[in-house]
Amino acid sequence: MKNVFKKTTKGILMVALLATVSGFADEAKILVDKGSKKTALILNDVKKGNQISIKDENGIILYSELVETTGTYKKGFDLEALPDGNYFFLVEKDLEYNTIPFSVEGSKVVFNKEKEAKFFKPFTRKENDMVYITKFSPKNETVSISIYADHNNGLQLRHTEKIVDEQVLERAYKLEKGNYKIVINSNNKEYTTFINN
User: Fold this and answer.
1) Taking the CB of residue 77, how many other CB atoms lie within 10 A of it?
2) Which of 35, 44, 92, 191 has the smallest number of CB atoms closer than 10 Å to its CB?
3) Considering the entire predicted model, what is its pTM?
4) H/E element holding 194?
5) Distance (Å, whole) CA 137 – CA 124
6) How many CB atoms lie within 10 A of CB 169?
7) What does the pLDDT profile of the chain (197 residues) look like in tens digits?
8) What b/e sequence results for 102-138 when a residue is b if at least 16 CB atoms lie within 10 Å of its CB, and e otherwise?
């Protein structure tokens, strides 16, 4: 099979990616008001369209909303009403998502600050017949890239790559004419991009 991709070692958009990254620990606050049994989630530097969710330990979405205004997000939640178990807030931004884990036991809500985590999404950009993929992996997370091409009304795997121990992933691929599906797996999440070249 003819390899239609040409990998290059060119610096790609890393400055733009890093410019969007800020310290999550400084921008997320949890305040618990025992009198009203409400827990306030306060997030700085959110944008309109960012998503806030509460999920259980199985990943089932219990609550979700899109941020309506850019700036500071503040909302009170009655987390004590949840059944006993483990949960987390998921804050999804343009190129990152953050998890804030907590547990409910009886009428007590406990946040686990040490297990808060920030993960970065890959950024895929097409320019002429080139596709550029960039991803920031501060903990050297494994990243898998699979590129499929439309072939006789079906998808055919044309390229696959597993990247280990790279904090700054930068890849460029030359595409022939056609339709492509790019699947990137990292941090137990899958990101899919469709490209018409």
Assistant:
1) 18
2) 35
3) 0.71
4) strand 189-196
5) 15
6) 21
7) 333 444 443 443 443 444 444 444 445 677 765 555 788 898 888 899 999 999 999 989 999 999 999 999 999 999 988 999 999 999 999 889 899 999 999 878 999 888 998 999 999 999 998 999 999 988 889 999 999 998 887 889 999 999 999 999 999 999 999 999 999 999 888 999 999 88
8) bbbeeeebebeeeebebbbbbbbebeeebbbbbbbbe
Amino acid at 158: R
Element (H, E) at 121: none
Q: Which amino acid is at 163?
A: I
Contact 176, 197 (CB under 8 A): yes
Tokens representing 112 are 């686990």
Residue closest to 102 by CA, chosen among 117, 113, 91, 118: 113
Q: How far is 142 from 169, CA to CA, in rounded Å?
A: 10
Structure tokens at 105: 């036991």
Helix spans in the chain (H): 14-19, 24-27
Query: What one-letter code names the amino acid at 175?
Result: L
CB proximity list for 127: less than 8 A, separation 6 or greater:
none
